[in-house]
Amino acid sequence: MDEELEKTELERKERREKHLKAVGLIEDLIQGTLFKHTADTIAKPDFAMYSAGARVITKLTSPSYLPQTGSFLGKLAQVFGINTRKNGNPPAIAMDPDTHLGRCWAFPGSQGQLTIQLSRTINATDFTIEHVDQQVAIDLRSAPKNIEVYGFIHEPTDSVEDDLEEYNRFLLGRFEFDPKEHPIQTFSAISERQVKYVQLRVLSNHGHPDFTCIYRFRVHGKLNEED
């Protein structure tokens, strides 16, 4: 009798362990699905979004990279039906929520800049850099690495580099982006400053010799009371 009870209890314990294991697997699956669908949920307005009214200041933005037809980026563009042979993907691509593989703004080399007129005058608080997830990325070397962000109150001019104070250019942030940690990373501003124009400066990438890709750059902040 004792042996039967012991056997029954053992079977019950095994069933409970299997049940808990199955529940754990289901929870992992749910968490993975939730992560996939909520990874982009930053819950902060993006004042650098092109569709919301932000615009590229072309004269202070690096030229787009022109991929060769036989290069990886060129082949990828052909697969997705993107015509890059004349001008390359425009900088505004980096201000768009669509960040599918290959849909990025690339500039030549490892150093470049993107200057944006924000959709509203804000007190900048955070910046978000996005790259394609490493699970689908073929080469992460083109991701930006060392980054600086500058702000302007008034519209910058061609000679903005000559006198920073005269043109109200000031450092808003300096940080390092590692796409292996997470494809979407948000960094805090050094201090909250009123800005209407923002310049993203990439000082280095993760080792690609030909180009650097910006999938998306976002600017977060608080609306100016007078705007």
UniProtKB/TrEMBL annotation:
SUPFAM superfamilies: Galactose-binding domain-like. Keywords: Membrane, Transmembrane, Transmembrane helix. Gene3D superfamilies: Galactose-binding domain-like (2.60.120.260). GO terms for cellular component: meiotic nuclear membrane microtubule tethering complex. InterPro entries: Galactose-bd-like_sf, SUN1-5, SUN_dom. It comes from the Eukaryota. Pfam families: Sad1_UNC (PF07738). Its main location: membrane. One of its GO terms (molecular function) is protein-membrane adaptor activity. Residues 53-224 form the SUN domain. It is found in: Membrane. This is SUN domain-containing protein. It comes from Basidiobolus meristosporus CBS 931.73.
